[in-house]
User: Fold these one by one.
Assistant:
Number 1:
Amino acid sequence: MANRNDILLYRILGNDLPPRHDSRQTLKNLQFILENEHVPANVERRWLLNRITDEALERELIALISTKAEKYLSVPFDRAGYAQCFLDASGLPKRFDPVDILRNMQVSAKDGSPLEWLYRHKNLYAINLNGARNLAVAEGCKDFRWTLVFDGNTFFSASGFAQLQDLAKVNPEAKYLVVPMARMSNNSNLLDPAFAPQAFDEPQIAFRNDARDRFDENLRYGNMNKAELLARLGIPGPWNVWRGTPWEPRHRTAAVDYGK
């Protein structure tokens, strides 16, 4: 049983999405994390393998995690379940021809949303980010004071861990921690103790064990799936003016722990 003041760092490992990602980006970054991230004594690190479609890759990921004897949870990819997720043109504005969109299978750099909309049920099943995030929160809140639900390609420096633990002590009323994130093109920069990148990207979120709000599992990857919770909690930032697919109905529920 973990100490109730301890922190669980849960990282979600999902499918790489070429050409957006290198086809083995997750494996390479996992290896880098395991070799270079030094976890404090009061932090436990776990992994959630989120519907990995490549069984050989999943075995490689598990083998790497096992070298550190760390816990992991695997959410399997069910091909039959994925096959039942149908293409759906309902709600698509009439100016778009779904047959033409599927025939060309081209995503405009300006607006790829019509094609993504047709595939939304399949995308939601295959990537399943918010479902995995909520599962990690539920697991962590059983035994830990704080659960960090982070994307699999994130990395903590020693100073980052120290700042995190200071942050958790600042406001005893806070039920969520917002952890800034900076995107890197070269992992080796992270090994320089003096390196301090500017964090302009969407932050990560940590949950105290009594936090009551969760990610909306109906939101797909690339459709404000994390930003929606940031906005709903009243956290200042550009996500408060972001909009997803323009014709998609939004049914945002009020946060239970608004402002916490």
Number 2:
Amino acid sequence: MKGTKAIGTDFYTPFQKFWNNGSTTPASFSSFEIVATENNTTVLITPRTAITGHAANATFSVILQQGETYSARDMNSTATSSLAGSIISANKDICVTTYSGALSNSGCLSTMGDQITSSEFIGNDYIIHRSTMNDEKV
């Protein structure tokens, strides 16, 4: 995991917009999970697509106690429905993990997840690794 760089108060979520979630039972989904490091942590969330119980682009708040987790789930399985760019901010330190289940590529299903770093550690230089998958450029 990311260690101390994963702890912060402001986050922007990265998600892919290319592969759909596959058809599974129970249904696959994409989500971000927020965990509080202290009691009485107020978290403001602006999801970029509708999540269970909340509309897209409508900011709402949750209060978490130390160790409690909030899960923001996008149950729409199409890649065009994405949590990419969702904004998460808090009055005390939190950690955020992103997740996409059963991403479908030519019948092959893969799950991805990662703990992300806070916006404090967003840089200006990035490395993009190009690869091939089934002779397609990705």
Number 3:
Amino acid sequence: RDNNNWQQYSYGDKEAYTLRADYALNDTARLKTTLVQTNLDTAMTGTLFESDYRNNDHWQLPSYTITGCAGATCRGTQNNNHVDSLGLDLKHEQNFDWMQSRLVSGLYLDFSNNPYISNNLSIVRNTATGQYINYTPNNAANPTGVRNYEARITNRAVFAQFEFTPVEKTRVVLGGRSDSIRYDFTNFLAPGGSADFGAPNETREFSHFSPKAGATYSFTARTSAYVNLSEGFTPPEVSQLYGKTAIPNLRPATYNNYEMGLRHKAMGGALKVDSALYRLDGHDTIVNYTIAPGNSENRNAGKTRSSGFELGLNYAQGAVDGRLGGSWAVHRFIDYQASSTLDYSGKEQPQAPRQLLSAELGYKPTERLRVSLEAIKLGQYWMDNANTVQYPGHSLFNLKAHWQIHKSLAVWGQIRNLLDKRYADNASSSYSGVGVYSPNTQNQYQVGAPRTAMVGLTYTME
């Protein structure tokens, strides 16, 4: 239960229940069944314009796609998106004496139904403050945006992975996965025309085979190195294809990943080091391109590349423990022609910071009590595709405590944003790099929470 929060329209109620049953068919096979029921009733917070964030005023903007403001009247939508699924996930492992090998294979099937309904709103806006005051349904006057469709999704995949040791201290992995996903789209409204009620019925299918290969070499019992080559496959989502009037001609995105790393244990195992160099080449990456504030569409971005270095350190010795995680990377458009006049090739991708750091130092005065201080550093990043508007990044500190009162009962607490820093969880800009730059209408900031205290109780039944 979350009520009377620091931010307007951020209240919400959530209930979640999980029931799981495991049954051993025999010594080598197990059947697992899980039933999850979740109820979520929540309001929707909004973002701040440039002038709002600069002045630290908390006039909130509901985030149900408000567009087309003319004076005190705006247009918007509210929607209901439902998904129910039935799936089967089979996995088999077989060990062999030959080169200490192992074969892992499996089958995945998923049948989902995704109905979606959206209705238009006529929204009243306070022109002096920029705050949205109230709304009423307005489908007749503004049919654009009304949707009532269903997408039946069939997802099939088979995979296999073979692991073996050709020579001492070397482990090799070879594998592959074949995916096929099919969308059966039904529009319950009259498509197209002046009413603009979405696209006609259709069936669309995407399929791909993704190979992978890797090897690990152990120099000593404490030091090992690895190399991985793999390919990923990401088909367009239902909302990306059918969320608007016309169905975009989206191609599935594929990614080639090249990675090499080193793992090492020092100080008698008290210090663990995990480092990696990687490069991720994307083809037909699906991006959301903002034509104007409140008006965006999904496109394939041609080619992208992410390359960087990741480092993880973990230390535990006596009453003191700590961790450090860092990522230094560049995420760039290699080929992205947004329009006949806008070419973002060579630009860095927006909302992709070069630096991400997190560190935590913990102390256990007793076996049952642990307190820690956590630091998070988010580096600067571009807010727009043209790399002209920049978010400076931020640093946050969190204080945590955990007290195990009994083996079944524990109390924990956190003070997040300890220094009460003003920051944004997300910052974006629709400025294209051409024409007049208007920060107050083109820049939006998802406000981060101020200093917040939380206390929890955990009880474990045995």
